[in-house]
Amino acid sequence: MIEEKRKIVELSSQQLMYLRNTNFLPTSLLRIVAAAKPIREQRFQLHVPNDIAEEFRSVFTDRLAKVGFKADYEPTSEGKVLEELIDRFFG
């Protein structure tokens, strides 16, 4: 039996709220976000297989390309959140 590699992703309450209120995550990823477990005040964890973490990163990267930068290539506030999420779900 091959054990699936999993990633533990720690999120702040603000990051979790952002993810729960997005309109760009597919339903399958929203279900995972809804299952986040509190670990301490204002902190939550997701336990996801590595391939699902990659799926999150891909969706975040697509969103970042659409809304993440101002005309001068400075990150928007949403862009900063997305960059942080990409880092948190990285391998």
Describe what you observe in this structure.
This protein is of the alpha+beta class. It has one domain. Helices cover about 50% and strands about 20% of the residues. The chain is built from four helices and three strands, in the order βααββαα. The chain has helices at about 15-20, 25-35, 50-65, 75-90, and strands spanning about 5-10, 35-40, 45-50. A three-stranded antiparallel β-sheet has the order 1-3-2. A hairpin with a 2-residue loop joins strand 2 and strand 3 (about 45-50). Helix 3 (about 50-65) runs antiparallel to helix 4. It is globular. It starts with 5 loop residues before the first strand and ends with a helix. The mean pLDDT is about 95.
What would a concise description of this structure say?
This protein is an alpha+beta fold and 91 residues long. 51% of the residues lie in helices and 20% in strands.
